[in-house]
């Protein structure tokens, strides 16, 4: 029996599915969504367009994009009862835990979202979550800041509306901030999909039991929370702030990262697939310079990040292991410049990854993939007889 099975820890050399959504080449540092390069999409597309592309496979024309956005606006109300669940959390609750719970709770207010056997039911569920998740993200942020919960404004673009719900001050008219919205739009595009990463594989395997889209996404949010995955963007900022507090002593943290007895890793470095520069990191590094320049912000954390990157790229430990900055290394610096609290960084990753998770879940369901159920190699006890309590 065990001869049949070979174990591949972390599935480093296992393909879980065939997919047409995203293409990665780790050696060449290539990333494409439905065949379009990440460089072109980050430069020329907007996030809602990219969401449509990932989910339905083609760039939308004007009418298709307009209908998609209108259908989303129709669904942008979140049941007021959901606020009772949000209120149940202490202010200290981590936003990723809050959002994973609220996303799962949405099923109770949208019961039809479970049965997605028809394409129409699938579309309705997809539009519903694309509409409501940004509201939940904004509510979670405002709850943490002690601000009144806000609602969307149908006259705004999709990302503009996200920015408005997150940042509109209660006693002021919302004023558009094109620099911030453009940076946010680009960051969301760069995070939108990444083939079979940990959280996407989680969405697929939960979805393979036909648990429904919202339940699958809730599981994906939990997987993304981990500091080895999406949680890294928060861990990078905490690391950079610790280095700054330590007088900018990057050498001490480099030594810790190389010390096998020290669990500390250089957060924002390394990648399972990219054995070269993460193409997203390059784009985000430039965007960080642009945003801070445009906003006139001098952030010492950015200088520390650049210093750390330079040292690591010249250090044989990192070079030999092909450890380069990944998408999480610079993104937190932009989020910080946009006034997003560190604890919300991974939530912003989830907001960007939502269309990718949806696209991969939809592909898995349309291809009628079987339920995920791997085997194992048993290494436990052989058969033994029960011993009554009085004899143990
Ligand atoms: C994301 O999969 C995706 O696509 C993810 C993502 C996406 O878009 O979905 O790209 C988003 O999660 C990016 C990664 C964010 N995580 C981090 O920045 C956390 C720090 N990085 C590491 O934990 C690590 O690099 C991983 C988790 C990203 C990848 O780990 P692997 O592929 O399992 O590699 P490994 O742990 O086997 O490491 C290989 C070697 C080991 O040393 P040796 O045992 O060979 O001597 O490299 C070392 C590791 O100790 N190493 C590091 C390191 N990363 C790997 N040493 C110090 N610092 C690091 N960051």
UniProtKB/TrEMBL annotation:
It catalyses: oxaloacetate + acetyl-CoA + H2O = citrate + CoA + H(+). Pathway: Carbohydrate metabolism; tricarboxylic acid cycle; isocitrate from oxaloacetate: step 1/2. Keywords: Transferase, Tricarboxylic acid cycle. It comes from the Bacteria. GO terms for biological process: tricarboxylic acid cycle. One of its GO terms (cellular component) is cytoplasm. InterPro entries: Citrate_synth-like_lrg_a-sub, Citrate_synth-like_sm_a-sub, Citrate_synthase, Citrate_synthase_AS, Citrate_synthase_bac-typ, Citrate_synthase_sf, Citrate_synthase_typ-I. Signal peptide: none annotated. The active site is at 271, 328. One of its GO terms (molecular function) is citrate synthase activity. Belongs to the citrate synthase family. This is Citrate synthase.
